[in-house]
Specification:
disordered C terminus; globular; mainly alpha; 457 residues; 17 helices; 85% helix
Length: 457
């Protein structure tokens, strides 16, 4: 139970594959229970209830995405310290990160609950789904700290090279979530708030499993001094975490803008968009997981000053993303009606969703590659660039939806997504090649000056 995984030694491809698959199963299970939650709500309560849950998704991404970005940014420094075998500094980072996360969780919970109805009104939420949207959202945001705790604990484990414990946690929480969902909706007839309560309860279990593992790792046992206030440490963490948090929030604002225009088209379109979003999120997971893997791999090797291994890892992760695109993109293109039928009841929303699946499926490679390149840049300690790419992504998404919504209707959402993915990918690809060229140039200079034996520590 005390094992951690050093990604700076051994064959890069073997390490990445062994790290990737447990995390992929973890992320896919998260999406499975998200889709199961959606299916239970849609089949048990109807398309309007499904629309209400989907209507909250972009707002949930805004709040939880911000906190996830912070914890991911904090954990880049954790992984770099682990790669450098500096456990004292690692503990100090963790102590400061815990202090900051407690304060942030309290603030985000208060703000999201207090302003929920105002935001739903701004999103043009239809009156027929307003009550359900409020009911679902209030439960989700009241339990926000459980999501933050899981993201923080699982993120620390991934930074230490452990992708298996989060998998165990998600297996347990997925089973519990589906059982509670079914029980609350079909037996106790709670309505949509029961689905939200099931999600919160399952997150408590997954957090407990990850926290238990962390308690067993000896060099992570924190003392009171590790929690001492340090302006320098807090500044370093926030310098790395805030840009990544803002990147997620900026992306979420673009998604909320799209949601605003979709809601204006009618409840059938809101239901279709909710189903589309669920499947897009699931089909992104292999590439997203490759990105998380690349972030941990790049962070540890950057801390160990083994820059050439980062390029090796990137090649492996790009291959993973490419295979994912060919398989899952093909399903979206060639079986769109089948996907729509899984979550939706009416013919109209199913047909609406099918067109979205075809277009976005063909261009899925852009977002798949985006996850890998952006995560690598983050792992190299350059959080500002992904944040700026998030701004590009938002501008492209919002600009395209505004220009094309009246001409193309719902299909403008597909154009907006593809444009956003392409713009952000371009920026991160350029940044990656600039940074790695600079670092590899430094390494070459050291080899010429000191000889190959001193190239690596």
């Amino acid at each position: 139970m005390t094992k951690t995984y050093d990604l700076t030694k051994g064959k890069s491809s073997k390490l990445i594959i062994s790290f990737f698959f447990p995390m992929l199963l973890t992320n896919m299970l998260q999406q499975v229970y998200s889709i199961a939650d959606t299916a239970i709500v849609g089949k048990g309560l109807g398309d309007n209830a499904l629309a209400a849950v989907g209507n909250i998704s972009s707002l949930t991404f805004l709040i939880i995405g911000f906190s996830m970005g912070l914890s991911n940014g904090f954990n880049v420094l954790t992984a770099q310290s682990f790669g450098a075998s500096d456990y004292k500094q690692l503990r100090r980072y963790l102590g400061a990160a815990i202090r900051l996360c407690i304060f942030i969780a309290a603030a985000l919970t208060a703000l999201s609950v207090f302003f929920l109805k105002d935001v739903l009104v701004l999103l043009q939420t239809d009156e027929s789904i307003m009550d359900d949207s409020l009911s679902y959202g209030l439960v989700i945001f009241s339990g926000l700290s459980t999501a933050l705790l899981y993201n923080m604990c699982s993120g620390i484990l991934r930074a230490l090279g452990d992708s298996k414990t989060p998998l165990i946690a998600i297996i347990i929480s997925t089973i519990v979530n589906i059982l509670l969902d079914s029980c609350f909706i079909f037996v106790f007839k709670t309505g949509v708030w029961g689905a939200a309560a099931a999600t919160i309860m399952s997150q408590v279990l997954s957090s407990a499993v990850c926290f238990y593992k962390l308690r067993k790792i000896e060099f992570l046992r924190l003392s009171r001094s590790d929690f001492g206030f340090s302006l320098r440490l807090d500044g370093l963490l926030l310098k790395n975490g805030i840009p990544m948090a803002l990147m997620n929030s900026i992306t979420a604002i673009g998604c909320m803008t799209v949601q605003y225009f979709v809601n204006g088209l009618g409840v059938a379109y809101t239901s279709a968009f909710s189903a589309c979003s669920r499947f897009i999120n699931m089909f992104m997971q292999p590439a997203c997981t490759a990105g998380y893997t690349m972030s941990a791999f790049a962070s540890q090797n950057y801390g160990a000053k083994k820059y050439n291994r980062i390029k090796e890892g990137m090649c492996v992760c790009i291959i993973i993303a490419s295979v994912s695109y060919f398989i899952l993109g093909s399903i979206m293109v060639f079986a769109p009606q089948f996907l729509g039928n899984i979550l939706l009841d009416g013919d109209e929303p199913i047909n609406i969703a099918a067109g979205y699946f075809r277009l976005c499926g063909a261009a899925l490679f852009t977002v798949d590659f985006l996850f890998v390149f952006r995560s690598c840049v983050q792992g190299l300690g350059r959080p500002l660039i992904p944040m700026l790419s998030g701004i590009v992504e938002m501008v492209m998404r919002v600009g395209v939806i505004i220009i094309f919504i009246k001409r193309a209707g719902f299909m403008a959402t597909s154009f907006a997504e593809i444009a956003a993915w392409t713009g952000a990918l371009t920026m991160n690809v350029c940044a990656y090649f600039y940074i790695t060229h600079k670092k590899l140039g430094m390494r070459s200079a050291k080899i010429k000056q000191h000889g190959p034996a001193k190239a690596y520590s």
